[in-house]
Amino acid sequence: MAISQPVQRPSGPVTAPAPPRGRRRKDDTALALLFIAPAFLGFAVFLAWPTLRGIWLSFTEFNLLTPARFVGADNYLRMVQDPVFWNAMVVTLQYVVINIGLQTVLALLIAVLMQRLTQSSLVRGLVLTPYLVSNVVAALVFFWILDTQLGVGNQIIAGLGLERIPFLADEAWVIPTIAVINVWRHVGYTALLIFAGLQAIPPTMYEAAKVDGASEIKMFFRITLPLLRPIMALVLIMTIIGSFQVFDTVAVTTQGGPVNASRVLQYYIYDMAFGRFQFGYASALSVGLLVVLMVVTVIQYRLTRAGSSDLA
Amino acid sequence: MSARPTPRRRRLAAALATLPVLVAASGCGGDQGAGDAQVIDYWLWDSSQQPGYEQCAQAFEAENPGLDVRITQSGWDDYWSRLTAGFIADQAPDVFTNHLTKYPQFVDLQVLLPLDELEATADLDPADYQPGLAELWQGQDGHQYGSPKDWDTVGLFYDRAVLEEAGLSPDDLADLEWNPRDGGTFEQVIAHLSVDANGVRGDEPGFDKENVEVFGLGASGSGGDNFGQTQWSPFTGSLPTWTATETNPWGSEFNFDDPAFQETLEWYYGLAEKGYMPRYDTFGPSSDSYQQFAAGRAALALNGSWMISSFASVEGVELGVAPTPIGPSGQRASMYNGLADSVTRFADDPEAAARWVEFLGGTTCQDIIGESGVVFPATPSGTEKSIQARSEAGIDVSAFTDHIEDETTFLFPVTEHGADITALLQPAMDAVYIGSEPASSLTEVNEQVNRLFDYG
User: Where is the ABC transmembrane type-1 domain positioned along the sequence (chain A) (predicted)?
Assistant: First the structure.
């Protein structure tokens, strides 16, 4: 395997200059490789190889059970002309915008409240509880809560004399509903990440601001938000990537419907592969998603200057 | 259900059904070491049929010492994903219950063994079964890929008490007629059976169609995933000339662009606009006509014969079944669907697997299944036993069986590209049901479906 190459390289410059007084410095390369090997192996087997194979399969017609057949760029041509793919792209983007927008604002609010208002670890723990529920369970529970006829949610709405809302059965409602379900589940975790970032802001800054007579709101915009930038950038990159991959909530509640209103990209890929046995085309769609995510991440990284901090 | 609960509606049930399956599977694992007998793995999705097949397995094992049948049941959705995973991972069962929407793809994937090449099933005789059932399982290559096990038709389930309250008798439902213009006596009846929150009936002035308490006719989604089997197929099936494909099985030309078909769908989904049938979003995708009936929200439920025992078990209901209405063709119509058992190429011992398949389709097992009264077995004698069992339980099933005697059935469309067709039809028909697209939009979808066959 490729391991033999790195063995040479690091040891080169180390051994080149003459060791002082004939005492050889101990070479750690072998030990380092030993430590790196498990992670490298995992990366190679579970990430690098499947990715490469996926890219290869995207150029084939493959049903998983009979041998793959090379078809060139056919799958990509089909992708560009596939209205359901473009629809899935739009639906996914809608989801990401609603999900990330709402989640980030709420998480920031919760994190700041946790830092500025309470020291109670019980409250901090409670904020995290929805995250302990598995995605599928959360989706199922909301599926029943929001059921048009039987759901507690809709019975309350009807009890208030309002018209029942077909949250998961109406084309206009379905994506916002799924986005909010996932905000409910993830917001505590995101808040916790931001909260950790807040802890890194020196309290002296707030003290100084207070002495100068700044209000809480002013301190939030002048101190908290600017100093949170690196951690917010990280949080955004992570949550946006996660958000693009929305699948389980859709699979449990709507399976892409009504019509194609909730057919997000990841669900379309899944259905194409495991429902329709078109693994080649599904691989091309996955590569499409990969490219989109890479572009989004690079843009974000640039925009938010995630690599540098204003604190130092 | 011997068949076809539509995937999405069964998903929850499937998720819940996994638990006992896991328990059962782990239990089976323990038993395995007990003897040296060769194990035949058999999978099915209908839990209500499992007891019957357990009995068949016992009888089979008594006749075939050295062979052990291990039955695994999982809900509809899980069933097909597990089967797919099994094919990929070489962990598929030896024998499994197969469905007409799925098997052409399995033939393409080369995971089924032709039964005519296995000793025990080589002389499978179509004449042993109800007419047409065995032929459905003949591939385009002429090989037999399934041994018929049961059949089903559809009918209108009702509660006698609900009819009485509406001043109707079962006789009033016996000869209903429908047409796509005014819906005929069928529409009059479901209008009368619809009741709004103020107790006003659908055919009375002042009926509030936005606030319907009981719908005259229950709904099970748009039917885009099963050719309208329990939705619109009895209506489109009783048009003078319309058929889903130009020939069946193995048609390659769909007729969803036919104006008569589209007019019928417009009328059928239009019932929801009139308040006689739930709208797409009234109950949401989780609900079907059985659940609406059981909850007292639907007076008539168009559903399949595989649901008889489920309907019969609804508390406080005096169950009756009316035949599907007579259409413009002058006749009734019902889709006629049948399941079969298939042997996979992963079978440890294909010949032993074939012997189990032969037994499943043989008189002994078919009669056991008939006596259990859950589905109609594929053999005439099994069917007879099943009818007897139901009539002893006080249920008249002639609404289902008359279709066979009167030859008013049409076969479930068997074609290639089943999954791709569903992927196109489901959203398209949902849109027509919702009302966001006219039925004429199906013309374009029909072209897309037909194109699947052009590219092979």
Answer: 89-300
